[in-house]
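Quick entry between incubations.
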Amino acid sequence: MALAAGRRVTARALLYAGAWLGRTQAMAGGGDGARRFANHRVLVEPDAATGVAVMKLRNPPVNSLSLELLTEFVISLEKLENDKTFRGVILTSDRPGIFSAGLDLTEMCGKNPAHYAEYWKAVQELWLRLYPSNLVLVAAINGASPAGGCLMSLICDYRILADNPKYVIGLNETLLGIIAPFWFKDTLVNTIGHRASERALQLGLLFPPAEALQVGMVDQVVPEDQVQSTALSMMSQWMAIPDYARQLTKIMMRKPTVDHMIKQREADLQNFISFISRDSIQKSLQMYLEKLKQKKG
Amino acid sequence: MALAAGRRVTARALLYAGAWLGRTQAMAGGGDGARRFANHRVLVEPDAATGVAVMKLRNPPVNSLSLELLTEFVISLEKLENDKTFRGVILTSDRPGIFSAGLDLTEMCGKNPAHYAEYWKAVQELWLRLYPSNLVLVAAINGASPAGGCLMSLICDYRILADNPKYVIGLNETLLGIIAPFWFKDTLVNTIGHRASERALQLGLLFPPAEALQVGMVDQVVPEDQVQSTALSMMSQWMAIPDYARQLTKIMMRKPTVDHMIKQREADLQNFISFISRDSIQKSLQMYLEKLKQKKG
Amino acid sequence: MALAAGRRVTARALLYAGAWLGRTQAMAGGGDGARRFANHRVLVEPDAATGVAVMKLRNPPVNSLSLELLTEFVISLEKLENDKTFRGVILTSDRPGIFSAGLDLTEMCGKNPAHYAEYWKAVQELWLRLYPSNLVLVAAINGASPAGGCLMSLICDYRILADNPKYVIGLNETLLGIIAPFWFKDTLVNTIGHRASERALQLGLLFPPAEALQVGMVDQVVPEDQVQSTALSMMSQWMAIPDYARQLTKIMMRKPTVDHMIKQREADLQNFISFISRDSIQKSLQMYLEKLKQKKG
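Done. Structure below.
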């Protein structure tokens, strides 16, 4: 945990020390700009002319939502929100094939309660920032997005999924023997309704593109090479609406869900810590992680 | 405002002085009866034999929901509700091509706070009367129905839309830089669900018939010349149900939404007055109205 | 009522005196085991190997949910829930053609308030047991299921309907001049959403298979002779999920609805008693029952 915290400070320091501006210039200067900040988990490609920034997750091998990534993501988003130049964000993966594998199990396994608390607060913070964000958020889902990866999409205003049968999407927590928190559930219910959520959550369903579209998990399925262009074109539709009216309307829709989460935030945190600290849960997570390692090895 | 209030009193007086009966007789006497009451904004064609009254909006050029129309509408509806002869109302437009353009922007522009208050109370009253009405309400949507026009349809028990690509329907408030009130939103969510509402409201979507049907904004799309006959035939299906059981079931479904609105009614009123009185909002409404005038001129 | 209570005691006694075990052995021994307990309203066919029990309603002629059946059902279910061997229940009818005709009108007609209270408590108890049950519940709907029969299906985790146009399903209470209680309504809204519920409940719609599937009243429609095998195969999909995670997820989805019902339970009971005791309601139920008798005679 000390390590993680240390890393986080580094990330913050980098950003506050002008990395943002530097990156903007780098991007404007050409495609190789991204390579300069290889230590970053989130590449931001801002386009001041259109007011749209592309945020690319880059956390090899599977874009796990580590504490480091979450922290960097929220800081980057905050900067975009405070910069009046930007009105929209396209969220995508720098690694086509995997949008995000979701929460980082290594942050939840073999650590101490203080680390679990820090990690969970970062997950909560991500949702609390993104779900009611004033920015237009479009998910350009160019890879599989299970669990927390799915949540990252659900949080957005519009979801475009690449038409590849391997790119499944869903909240599959039960398959690992864990439970999606209530605010994951609320976000899903707001998107696909009560009945479809009940079934999808209990069975831990991962929907391939056609089914994801049918159940309402995504808004559009397009050929893989058209995901980014479609995202840009949908973004312009959303940005054609006067910001003020659109933002107040978004808040009106999402505020009850956000308020409910804030009210339960502390209880949810304590609940997570005590759940994840259980021997049985730790054991099953360890077994799962070992299996993953063997697979790769 | 004084003028509007004056007009309203006139309308009331006319109605209470036997206009209702007069109109009934006129209608029974032939098609020219409607012409006699050219000053009316709502034509009521009651058919005592079937227990169904047709209410036709007639407020040229676009059936705007002016204070006068709203007042007359509510009084007419109240009379039907109190008359045991009538169990169902078909709501339609006397001007095929436009069902209703929605709230009357001239009532919200260049007036004083007292007028805004009076107008908004009338809009609230319309919803509070219609949404939990004991009558069966069928919308025969024979024209475009944006914004408040859409709300008039959503309030009904069943919606039939004429299959004409120009007859779009939706809550498009954000396109004018304004926000649908929360009870418009609640009515929409009750009809098409949370996710579809979130998107439709933020983008101010106006759905052509096929899309309106698919998203659930209307229940049926039929050729333009079959709208009224379909409405009558659907009405008979609804009227076949014992009134008492149907009404209690309707109240059970809609009461939570109505109760929530009543609780927030005063806050909603104050919110509207302060919002609409803003210079920026007044300016943008004025510009919009000028543009409309130039279009016609 | 005394008779019903007497019968109930008998049923309890039988069960507690080892009938369960006896029946298990009988079933294991062959198909004729079921015949031994001809006085039972619920046949339980437990399969310890798979952990799945089939519960078959058998209350001729139409599987009415009599006080006796309800009581036996809840006791049988409780036993299965307490027996760690069993993780899933398939709910079906022993009489293909009719899944269940719903609540037993003879329990609500011509009896005294104490009987109405006892009966309604049993109906409430059924829902309170089944809706949040830890078991996986799959409905193999092999016949018509109006009203309370429909509720029995809605309570389950998954619904399979035989593809026979006569096998209609729906909450058709209004057709009899009565009103579905709010928790029937809540269960329906959780399944098919607000708008579809509003229409289905007011009109008392009974959906044939294709429409039932489209509106979401059932999850799957299959040829009549494949209902049971499909139920078993779907059951194995649900049972592949770790119990603990699946159960907590189910509770998370259904608890708000259950909590709301528990809070209103006593009011709902009083409401039922006073409603059903009305002369007008008793009269219309009597007329309906007479008509049914004449039909048969």
